[in-house]
Amino acid sequence: MIAEVDKEECIGCESCPEFCPEVFKMEADGLAVAYTNPVPTEFEEAAKEAAEGCPAHCISLT
Question: Which residue ranges run through the membrane (predicted)?
Fold first, then answer.
């Protein structure tokens, strides 16, 4: 699974690293990034929760 954050849609709410800090982090610009790809199998469920919990709906998982 590959995780991506659409930075043009990201609102910087910090919810994705709260759900899955092993895959998502906040960058200096205040926006999130998926820094672990492919997503390790043991973190796929947490990454899905992060995507579902994103209020901006800017996380895609493929």
Answer: none
